[in-house]
Amino acid sequence: MKKLKLYLDTSAIGYLDEKSSPREMNEMHQLWEFIKRGKYEASISPVVIDELMANSNTEKRDILLGYLKQIEFNIIDITEEVRATAKSIVQNGVLSDNNYNDCLHIACAISNGCDCLVSFNFKHLVNIKTIKGARAISNLRGYGNIDIVSAITLIQERDE
Asked: Which tens digit of pLDDT belongs to each residue from 82-107?
């Protein structure tokens, strides 16, 4: 079976240190272990780095950046193709311009052939409207299917 390519959004990384949600934090730690062992190929974008750096809690920011040092990951550049895909997400009503960083997360994952976008952002990303919309945009632009999932989906998949 081919190794799945994962795009990790900022919320996924943030849940590595989300003590107020111990179950989800544990799920993300399990997924992190799979990534560390090379079971998945991980990618992030400069949007993730920018959002992490914008955290005013310097202790939490340093902890999360420290986690990134534990894994190998690809950095997906914000290219014209990514921007065009993000624009298509807005134009097709999947998300609004007010959530442009979320559009960029989806666009990075789509335009770089990621199998899954991992997120804990249930309001904007991990919901049926966005998942169906992202798949439609991905197919419209000639890319394969993309799934938007939380960590539990991937750790259950690995347990089988």
From this structure: 999 999 999 999 999 999 999 999 99
> Residue 116 belongs to a domain with what CATH number?
3.40.50.1010
The whole-angstrom separation of Cα 151 and Cα 83 is 26
Enumerate long-range contacts of 1-4, CB under 8 Å, 24 or more apart.
3/38, 3/39, 3/40, 3/41, 4/40, 4/41, 4/115, 4/116, 4/154
Q: How many independent structural domains does the chain possess?
A: 1
* H or E element in which residue 139 lies: helix 128-140
Q: What is the per-residue pLDDT for 156?
A: 78
Report percent pLDDT > 90 for the chain. 95
The residue assigned the tokens 């730690």 is 29
> In the 8-state DSSP scheme, what is residue 17?
G
- Is 0.90 surpassed by the pTM of this model? yes
Mean pLDDT of the chain: 95
Q: What is the chain's length?
A: 160
Contact of 45 with 100, CB cutoff 8 Å: no
Q: 69: domain range?
A: 5-159
